[in-house]
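lol forgot to send this yesterday, sorry. struct tokens for the thing we talked abt
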């Protein structure tokens, strides 16, 4: 099957007074129709900037996509005009964020906001858009959809607002849904319901999903394929089974160990020591080396390549890559 999205050597940098922040620094990945790709990593690793680059929503200045290719549906997004890009956003690619309140306008009703999106992207009149809107609210499991379409965002709970966002995002049948920490602000029960809903919708509508989260439990539940990011780069990629069965990069191992689970009590929770590097002072060699329990001399000197280790697995780590000429 052909790729729906192909990202090659994406580099997105921020030019600040203090220096250049290489937020995304040579990222590659691809996604097929109907597939769910999980992007994981601690806060500040470049997950959101990766997705905002795909949407071409990087604030410029200070940010800029300085290199790479983003091919979506056989079109190079980086060469499209802003007007062409606007057609793709919301139509072919939709996005949902962590905090739905910031993307919903408090002074307009839920219905008018969803209808506006529908009328903008599909050539429907007001009446048809209202029907489509109610249909979408029903689809995402909002009770009494026909009544609440005239309610305002503040009349909804966080979980209901996130459902509204999903309804809005999916109302134009996008081929790709980018979900950036879609359930992080919600309590666990609601989180589980929203994830279940996304799964159902994906099966019904065959939407590809780029799911960004710092929560490995969420990707385990949802993703087919996972990329792990650290300091603006991909450090490991694998399908969901291989990654959880046998993580290769010490960073991935650390993330998995710090994931709370029911068998483990909180006081035995391992957390990766240290913290993500200052983006203005990423250490030379492997960016993870100051925190790595297996660090070797070479790790401080030279950045390992992202190398295939069989099947669809790749890892960026000197433990798994032989350096030419080294013993
Ligand atoms: N507007 C901005 N100006 C400067 N640096 C930014 C800006 N937005 C993001 N960054 C930097 O880019 C890096 C990656 O951020 P982000 O993609 O948001 O991380 P996360 O993985 O948590 O989503 C961080 O180091 C962050 O400080
Ligand atoms: Mg983020």
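and heres what i got for the seq, position by position
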């Amino acid at each position: 099957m052909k790729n729906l999205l192909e990202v090659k050597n994406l580099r997105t940098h921020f030019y600040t007074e203090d220096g250049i922040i290489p937020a995304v620094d040579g990222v590659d990945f691809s996604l097929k129709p109907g597939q769910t790709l999980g992007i994981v990593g601690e806060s500040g690793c470049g997950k959101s900037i990766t997705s905002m680059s795909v949407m071409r929503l990087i604030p410029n200045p200070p940010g800029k996509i300085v290199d790479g290719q983003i091919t979506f549906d056989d079109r190079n997004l980086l060469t499209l005009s802003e007007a062409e890009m606007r057609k793709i956003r919301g139509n072919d690619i939709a996005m949902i964020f962590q905090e739905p309140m910031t993307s919903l306008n408090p002074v307009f009703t839920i219905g008018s906001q969803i209808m506006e999106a529908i009328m903008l992207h599909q050539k429907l009149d007001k009446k048809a858009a209202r029907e489509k809107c109610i249909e979408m609210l029903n689809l995402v499991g909002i009770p009494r959809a026909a009544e609440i379409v005239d309610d305002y965002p503040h009349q909804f709970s966080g979980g209901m607002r996130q459902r509204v966002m999903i309804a809005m995002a999916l109302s134009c049948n996008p081929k790709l849904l980018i979900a950036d920490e879609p359930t992080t602000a919600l309590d666990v029960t609601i989180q589980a319901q929203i994830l279940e809903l996304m799964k159902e919708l994906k099966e019904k509508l065959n939407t590809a999903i780029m799911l960004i989260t710092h929560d490995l439990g969420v990707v385990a539940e949802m993703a087919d394929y996972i990329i792990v990011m650290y300091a603006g780069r991909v450090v490991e990629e694998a399908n969901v089974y291989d990654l959880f069965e046998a993580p290769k990069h010490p960073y991935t191992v650390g993330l998995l160990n710090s994931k709370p689970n029911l068998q483990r009590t909180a006081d035995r929770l391992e957390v990766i020591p240290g913290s993500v590097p200052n983006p203005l002072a990423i250490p030379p060699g492997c960016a993870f080396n100051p925190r790595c329990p297996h660090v070797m001399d070479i790790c401080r000197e030279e950045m390992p390549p992202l190398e295939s280790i069989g099947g669809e697995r790749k890892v960026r780590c000197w433990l798994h890559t032989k350096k030419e000429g080294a013993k």
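The first strand starts at residue 5 and ends at 16. anyway ping me if u want another try
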